[in-house]
TrEMBL record:
PANTHER family: ALDOSE SUGAR DEHYDROGENASE YLII, HEDGEHOG-INTERACTING PROTEIN. Residues 42-54 have a biased composition (Acidic residues). It comes from Halorubrum coriense DSM 10284. This is Glucose sorbosone dehydrogenase. Pfam families: GSDH. The lineage of its organism: Archaea, Methanobacteriati, Methanobacteriota, Stenosarchaea group, Halobacteria. Residues 30-54 are annotated as: Disordered. InterPro entries: 6-blade_b-propeller_TolB-like, Glc/Sorbosone_DH, Quinoprot_gluc/sorb_DH_b-prop. Residues 68-414 form the Glucose/Sorbosone dehydrogenase domain.
Length: 420
């Protein structure tokens, strides 16, 4: 689905039916609003949905800080408590959640802030603060004015009375090739439990929908998940390092525009959420070397129609089906930002996947049963559904277990969900 406004659909009706504000809780909605990719069944029947122990959790919503211009990424500093926030227009800030103090972090890169491009995600080196590197993903151009997704790193300095800054920031990976246009950069970055850096790259809105599409071309790094060392080199255990016709950095391919990625603590597996064409949004468990089908397999509609875009994943050999999807005609769930909840503030939600949705304007909560590609995913009642907020990013505060959400707007807040 696009990153823009969606048509009015049944999700609009759900939001109008009553959202969560303050300590108010919604009655449980009718099970899963999408389809389970593991068995292809529609979970909208109440009888099919497993019980929801987290349905009656009461919470309050607090404003942490305001005035951000299209915030995109969130990352907490371990043993510090402060929060790094990126803004798509190029700003990088350090926020103290205790009092809302905002400091500008110097040294962020120059970015291509057009369309869906700009300063995107932020991640910390797993050994932070012993290794103080901060990683940013961003769109930037070449001399010809073409753009692509970049990964860069610099050392965060918090010493003395000077303002915080990124020292020695430089790009460490540039996804090839550069292309014209300003759409579908991805991009999320997260470190896996083995210490490698995973980065999602969009297909740059390539409309050559066929077997030669960039997402199906393993010689490119577009429409893919990259797996890198902390220095930005291709990981030596990547699946195609011995293939002279494939990009060494590739970990998975056949993606359209993945804008959410999280590690599931129970398994260490990488999960992603990505945009479909019209509807067809997906939740995927990422397999080494896996082909996720785009655009030769999809659950989406062609834009402006109710016609299937391509054969479904189950009708195409050699592709991996999503564990959960929003089929053609469903209204979709254009995603951005995800985290598995592992905090103490809301024990009933522990193990659930939280993912933001843009056009549908709420924070989704998903129960997950099973481990890998056989996992069953059930969407629960939406959070923050009455706010009219495009949900761009979500994170868990390590010390408290509070949920943080960044709102995609020109003058936006970062909000905190706490027990009522």
């Amino acid at each position: 689905m696009t990153d823009g406004l969606d048509r009015i659909d049944r999700r609009t009706a759900l939001r109008a039916a009553g959202g969560l504000a303050g300590a108010t809780t919604l009655p449980a909605l009718s099970g899963c609003l999408g389809d389970s990719g593991s068995d292809g069944t529609d979970g909208s029947d109440d009888d099919d949905a497993p019980p929801d122990d987290g349905a009656d959790v009461a919470y309050d919503v607090e404003t942490v800080a305001t005035g951000f211009e299209n915030p995109w990424g969130l990352a907490f500093l371990p043993d510090d408590g402060r929060l790094l926030i990126t803004e798509r227009t190029g700003g990088l800030s350090l926020v103290d959640p205790a009092d809302g103090t905002v400091e500008v972090v110097a040294g962020a890169p120059e970015v291509f802030a057009e369309g869906q491009g700009g300063l995107l995600d932020v991640a910390l080196h797993p050994d932070y603060p012993d290794d103080p590197r901060v990683y940013l993903t961003y769109a930037a151009t070449n001399d010809a004015g073409e753009a692509t997704t970049h990964v860069g790193a610099g050392r965060l300095s918090l010493d003395g009375d000077d303002a915080p800054g990124l020292a020695g920031f430089e790009p460490i990976r540039v996804a090839e090739p550069f292309r014209g246009g300003s759409n579908h950069f991805g991009s999320r970055a997260t470190f896996g439990p083995e210490g490698s850096l995973y980065v999602t790259v969009g297909d740059r809105r390539d409309t050559d929908f066929g077997p030669d599409h960039v997402s199906q071309d393993r010689s490119t790094e577009l429409g893919a998940t990259l797996r890198l060392t902390s220095d930005g080199d291709p990981h030596p255990d990547n699946p195609f390092v011995d293939d002279p016709d494939a990009a060494d950095a590739l970990y998975s391919y056949g993606h359209r525009n993945p804008q959410a990625m999280a590690v599931r603590p129970e398994t260490g597996r990488i999960w992603q959420c990505e945009h479909g064409e019209e509807d067809g949004d997906e939740i995927n468990v990422v397999e080494r070397g896996g082909n996720y089908g785009w655009p030769v397999a999809s659950e989406a509609c062609r834009y402006g129609t109710d016609d299937p875009f391509a054969p479904a994943h189950g009708e195409r050999d050699g592709v991996i089906a999503p564990v959960h999807f929003w089929p053609c005609g469903s209204g979709g769930f254009p995603p951005s930002g995800a985290v598995f909840y592992d905090g103490d503030a809301f024990p009933e939600w522990r193990g659930d996947l939280f993912a933001g949705t843009l056009a549908a304007q709420y924070l989704g909560r998903f129960a997950v049963d099973g481990t890998g590609l056989d996992a069953t995913v059930t969407e629960r009642e939406p959070l923050l559904a009455d706010r009219g907020w495009r949900m761009r990013a979500v994170a868990v505060e390590p010390d408290t277990g509070h949920l943080y959400a960044a709102v995609d707007d020109a003058d936006a807040p970062v909000a905190r969900i706490v027990p009522a």
